[in-house]
Amino acid sequence: MDIIFENVNYTYQPNTPFSHQALKDISLEIKSGSFVAVVGHTGSGKSTLLQHLNALLQPTSGRLVLGNVELPGAHHEQIKSIRQRVGLLFQYPEHQLFEETVKKELLFGPKNFGFDLKQVETELNDSLQEVGLEESVLDRSPFELSGGQMKRVALASMLLAKPQVLVLDEPTAGLDPLGQKKMMQLFKSLHENKQHTVVLVTHNMDDAMRYAEKVIVLNQGTVECVKSPSELIHERDRLKAIGLDVPEPVEFVEYMKARLGVLWEEEDINEQTISRTLVKHLKGGATS
Ligand SMILES: Nc1ncnc2c1ncn2[C@@H]1O[C@H](COP(=O)(O)OP(=O)(O)OP(=O)(O)O)[C@@H](O)[C@H]1O
Ligand SMILES: [Mg+2]
């Protein structure tokens, strides 16, 4: 399903002294089946934007189209169908989990959406394995688990409801490096093999550049720009100006140019173009 924001504004606690406009005139499009990253400094509106995608929040003004459903103004059944089609993994898993046991937690979504629970029970073990959890967690309370394990339970629970769109709010934060890499590989394979749309909020610019087809850059509640990774590498100064990390390969190329006098002639910045240019430089052919 295509997702279209048209001049969307969102204000928390309107008409109170605590009123805060978190999204300002957001217009953008997320195509069905695409992999999109959302980056921005803390407080730029990433989580607020994501919570609109499964109608947890609705625009204060403007229009949001989620497939065949339009917000605001959708009725209860339409919202329910959006909640099933768009899975949202919260930034803080403890805000998402509430059942007594992991097993109950995993079955909650499918039960709520009227799935055949006997069938879902046969999928539980595969699902745990997919997200990197042992079967032994099934009878434990989700609140006894580590932050990383809770995140994995919330992810398994989301996937068992078979959403088309995976909305992931910093899913790898708090995981060890290997865990982060495996989880990113899982999203990549769900995107490539099952054509899921993926919308990923991350503070890791390298992940955004490596996995996403488009990167949405938010700045103080507005869309600063929407760029492909190969376009974003030319936005080093802009990213720095709004307090974002510059991807490591981009910094490395800057270093090569400034310190080693390397002449950079490639369009893309990646392992291949860096090693190609370095070899050329060492042979005396890429020196500025
Ligand atoms: N429930 C709320 N009530 C009032 N203001 C809020 C509420 N939730 C968020 N905000 C404010 O809205 C703005 C955007 O918050 P949001 O959580 O979307 O940012 P974010 O980009 O996800 O930040 P982070 O990287 O820290 O997760 C912030 O200024 C925040 O303080
Ligand atoms: Mg956030």
Automatic annotation (TrEMBL):
Keyword tags: ATP-binding, Cell membrane, Membrane, Nucleotide-binding, Translocase, Transport
Pfam families: ABC_tran (PF00005)
Transmembrane annotation, as ranges: none
Enzyme's top EC category: translocase
Domain ABC transporter intervals: 3-245
EC numbers: 7.-.-.-
Membrane topology label: Peripheral membrane protein
Gene Ontology CC entries for this record: ATP-binding cassette (ABC) transporter complex
Protein's cellular compartments: Cell membrane
One annotated GO molecular function: ATP binding
PANTHER family linked: ENERGY-COUPLING FACTOR TRANSPORTER ATP-BINDING PROTEIN ECFA2, HEAVY METAL TRANSPORTER
Function: ATP-binding (A) component of a common energy-coupling factor (ECF) ABC-transporter complex.
Complex and partners: Forms a stable energy-coupling factor (ECF) transporter complex composed of 2 membrane-embedded substrate-binding proteins (S component), 2 ATP-binding proteins (A component) and 2 transmembrane proteins (T component).
Family to which this protein belongs: Belongs to the ABC transporter superfamily. Energy-coupling factor EcfA family.
Protein name per UniProt: Energy-coupling factor transporter ATP-binding protein EcfA2
Species annotation: Alkalibacillus haloalkaliphilus
Gene: ecfA
